[in-house]
Each structure stands twice: as structure tokens, then as C-alpha cells.
Amino acid sequence: MWRDAVLVAGKDLRIEARSRVALWQVVPFAILVLVLVAFAIGPNESDLRHAAPGIFWIAVLFSTVLSIQRSVAVESGEGTRDGLRLSGIDPAGIFLGKAAAVGFQLLVLQIVLWAGVTFLFDVRVHIIWLAVTASLLATVGLACAGVLYGALSAGLRVRDTLLPLLVLPVLAPVLLAGSKAWQAALSTHAGTGAQWLRLLIPFAVIYLVIGVVLYGPLQEAA
Amino acid sequence: MAPVVHFRAAVALAGRFPALAGVDLSLHPGEVVVVVGANGAGKTSLLRACAGLLPVTSGTAEVLGIDLTTDHTTVRRHVGLLGHAAPIYDELSAAENVRFSVRALGLPVARADEALERLGLVGRLRTTPTGRLSAGQRRRVALAALVARRPALWLLDEPHAGLDAPSRDLLGNLIAEAATDGAGVLLSSHEPELSVPLSDRVVVMGGGRITSDSPGGRRPNLSAVPAADSPPEPGTMGAWHVA
């Protein structure tokens, strides 16, 4: 399973590196969300600083949808979809590989957005371990849940419009917990920030386990 | 010797409709069987059922000794399917596509390199992203992936489509070699003049069933083979059916 996961992740990341969809579409989109929401909030620096964690995670969440759509699109053709089913690769390995590839892209995106938030909103992360831990846990949850729902919508003609409807409500806990944890990380004391990690941990674990178990049947149904 | 494919009254559904409506077919190791028939006759469905992509719901359906009515996924790693759409990634080169296919089965990468050379995918053709290749060249990449995997059952759906004359000759040689090595080959075709000479038997499909089974190869009986575009018989499945 792990060997298969590495193989699939390597394949997806290589495709991404060649197509540069993440670089030229997902990253600019995320920065655009950052800027537009900032415009909507207004020029008050205090308001912007206060809203920075929420804006950051909204940008990450919307970008996750794009990354998932791209991940599904790689195998949207009849040939590649059947090819993957006939490849002999363990479905759990496919799930883990695709989630790892999406997760890696999301981590890179968060680094870019972190820089963007720092520059645009003049905020500093004071408790780095909290921000990094929250980001890592949220990334696992976002990638696993996203790939799972991506598989659910894969065979549908309306998948591009259906996927956001399916996945955004499911990812709401990550938006909430990530924003709260980052809010604490931006302040000088952890406060209740660490408690929000307790929401991110089960979210990540549950979707990881569900994905490993259900990806095969979902792939067949699609 | 146990047959590679053993179907008796096999039924498979595509949605609500029977894509296979009671197929009887045996294919033995080293045998090449060509399937012909009008559009919607069930040729592609038969190949997909043999590959474990279309579940068989009733009857007997065994491929390589695996009962497809109870387990249609295990067989997949042992068969090679060349369908209408090439199972390759446009962003990856021919070498990367074929190596991925080989690594997925845990086979040595050297097999991929051998297959690429055999299919003439060398130099620029080997390293260019397949999205920039012609349809025929992409078909050769898909064929290289199949050759590298050396499956026990070759399932070829219109394999001559998009290939130039030298590639068609090469395909004929590859099929003959696979059969000599003991693999079974099931080949659907709308071009009997190309495929029948390669075959040991020719089966005709209509309405999701095998309607005739005659010798092929050195004793072709082309008059028994219906024209590719002849309409389905009354009462049989027509264009609405997924072929």
C-alpha cells in the first residue's frame, strides 16, 4: 500500500509540475481571495489583523477545492480512469498517494499565503509550533476529505459544480479550528488555541481511515 | 489446459440494459479470437467484462480461473486492456507512462525500456509529453505499456485504429508472439481484413450474444463476417446500448 502511495503521489506531482496548474492558477487564485476579502473588510488595520487568520483559511479552503478538482481531472478520461483501475495498484494506495500529492501542494500554498498575510496585514506568528501543527493537521484533513469527496463526484458530469457543494460544508470544521488556532498563534499566548487542535486531530484521522477503507468502493461506483 | 476465458450464459448489465445477454465463449492459452459485430453488438462490453471492469451478474464467467461473478477486481492485474481511449497521461512522456504501468505491478523497469524500444518509441518520442504526440503514436505508447506488463490475457478493442501500416504489422507480430508465449488474445474489430488473418477463431456478436463461431487465420471465412456498419438485427440491442 505504501509503495503504491509513493508511486501515485510521484505521478500526480510530476503531472502537476508539468501542467503548472497549481502554480499559475491555484496560487494566484488564493492570493486573489486574500486581497479581495481584505478589500471587503476595509482599510482598518486592526480589523484586518483580527480577520487575518479567517481570511487565510478561507483562501486555503477555496484553493483546496481547486486542487481536488485538478486531482480528479487527471483521471477523468475513460482511458486513464480504467487504466488506474487495471493498474494493479491497491485503491488504498491510490487514495493515500493522491491525498499526499494534494497535501503537499496545500502546504506549499500555505507557505505562500503565510507570506502574503504577513505582508498584506502586517501580522506576525508568535507561537510558531501552534501555527505549524494546526497547518499540518488541517492539511491532512483537507487532503483526505477532499480526495474522498473527489472520488464520490468523479464519475458525474456535474462534478465540477457539485464538488464545492459537497466538500465545503464538510470542511467547515477545519476553517473554524484552523482560524482559532492561528488566532492564538498570532497572539503572544497560546490560550485556547491548542484546544482547537483537538478538533483537527480527529477530523484528520477519521477522513484518513474512511478514505483508506472506502476509496476502492467509491472508485468502482464512479 | 484450463481456458483463459470461460463464459457460459454470462449476463452483464450496463445500467438497466443487458450489455451481455448470455454469452458463451471459451478462449484457451495461446489462442487468438477475433470478435466482430455491428455497433452495439456487445464487443466492447465483452472485453470490459473479461477485464473485470463490467461486473457479470449471472451465468458462469471465469477468467484465468477467477470467478468474475464473485470477484471482478482480482483479475485486473493479470489482464491487459487496450481500449478506445489510451490509458496514458498527457503530461507524462512515453517512458514515464510505461514505467508507471510497470512499477504499479512491481515489475522491473527494464521491461518498460524493452517495450518502448520494441514499439519504436525512442529518441524524441520517448521523452516528449504524450499529449503532444499524434493519435497513432499515443496508441503505440499504450501498446508499449501493455507489452511491458506481459499479461496472461490481451484484450484489444479496435487495436488497429489510428495505426499506420508499419505499426499494424508490428501489432500483428506482437499478437502472434503473445499467443506463442501462451497468452490468450481477445480482439474486437471493425476491420476483419486486418484482424481475421491474425486469428485462430472468429466469433460474431449480435444483441449481446455470440451468434456464430468459425475458424480464422489460415482458413478465414470472411463471408460469414458481417460488415462493420450493418444495422443490428430486429429485436437486438441498438445504438442506445453501450458497446
Please, could you describe this protein's structure?
The complex is a heterodimer of chains A (222) and B (243). Chain A is an all-alpha fold. Chain A is built from eight helices and no strands. Chain B is of the alpha/beta class and 243 residues long. Helix content of chain B is 28%, strand content 26%. Chain B has seven helices and ten strands. In chain B, strands 6-7-8-3-9-10 form a six-stranded mixed sheet, with helices on both faces. In chain B, strands 2-1-4-5 form a four-stranded antiparallel sheet, with helices on one face. The radius of gyration of chain B is 17 Å and the shape is globular. Chains A and B meet through α1 and α4 of A and β6 and α2 of B.
Content of β-strand of chain B: 25-35%
Query: Mean of residue pLDDT of chain B?
Result: 82
Count the helices of chain A. How many?
A: 8
Uncertain stretches of 5 or more adjacent residues of chain B: 218-243
Instruction: Please report the total strand number of chain B as a whole number.
Output: 10
Helical fraction of chain A: over 70%
Q: For this entry, what is the oligomeric state of its chains? A: heterodimer
Q: Which protein chains make the most extensive interface, counting residues with beta carbons within 8 Å of the other chain's beta carbons? A: A-B, 23 and 27 residues
List the helices and strands and how they pair.
The complex is a heterodimer of chains A (222) and B (243).
Chain A: H1 2-19, H2 21-41, H3 45-73, H4 78-86, H5 91-121, H6 128-153, H7 159-186, H8 193-221
Helix pairs in contact in A: 1-5, 2-3, 2-5, 3-5, 3-6, 3-7, 5-6, 5-8, 6-7, 6-8, 7-8
Chain B: E1 5-14, E2 17-27, E3 32-37, H1 43-50, E4 56-63, E5 66-67, E6 79-82, H2 94-104, H3 110-118, H4 124-127, H5 135-149, E7 153-157, H6 165-180, E8 184-188, H7 192-195, E9 201-206, E10 209-215
Parallel strand pairs in B: 3-8, 3-9, 6-7, 7-8
Antiparallel strand pairs in B: 1-2, 1-4, 4-5, 9-10
